[in-house]
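Reminder to self: tokens first, then the designed residues, so the page reads top to bottom the way the pipeline ran.
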């Protein structure tokens, strides 16, 4: 492949790379909105119970930053205990994990199906608003940034294709 061939393909990079970034950001936003909606919906045949966070799984994750070095953040996943309407004590690990989840010792509301109480989940009102805002908000910011990059680089790439 000659240098001329590479320079002819360069404008395509200004079209393809931002388009892929945009699609990735759109998928992230869509999946986060789906997860948020699924967590907010409680099936009609599930029961509500009061419980408490008894422990948590925690791990450090490295989060990169677009404008400088990244940093490590502590991600927490609550372990919750509650009693079913039949008096059975159930302990489960929440499906939510993040920086702003309920902490050990905090009371929480739980929803569970009577035939599968081990598959319980935190009630929407027990999930801090900050968790929901940060998860959907972060995805929305990524989407907007990718959209701006897509528009800018698409116009550069199309201009280069027209002039070349």
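Designed residues (164 positions):
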């Amino acid at each position: 492949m000659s240098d001329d061939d590479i320079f002819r393909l360069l404008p395509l990079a200004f079209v393809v790379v931002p388009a892929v970034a945009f699609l990735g950001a759109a998928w992230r936003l869509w999946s986060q909105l789906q997860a948020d909606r699924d967590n907010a919906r409680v099936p009609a045949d599930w029961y509500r119970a009061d419980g408490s966070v008894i422990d948590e799984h925690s791990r450090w994750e490295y989060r990169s930053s677009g404008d400088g070095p990244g940093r490590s953040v502590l991600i927490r996943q609550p372990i919750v205990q509650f009693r079913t309407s039949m008096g059975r004590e159930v302990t489960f690990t929440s499906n939510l994990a993040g920086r702003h989840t309920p902490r050990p010792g905090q009371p929480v509301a739980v929803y569970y199906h009577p035939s599968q109480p081990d598959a319980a989940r935190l009630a929407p009102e027990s999930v801090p608003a900050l968790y929901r805002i940060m998860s959907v908000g972060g995805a929305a910011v990524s989407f907007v940034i990718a959209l701006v990059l897509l528009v800018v680089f698409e116009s550069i790439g199309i201009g280069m294709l027209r002039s070349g």
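The first helix runs from residue 3 to 40.
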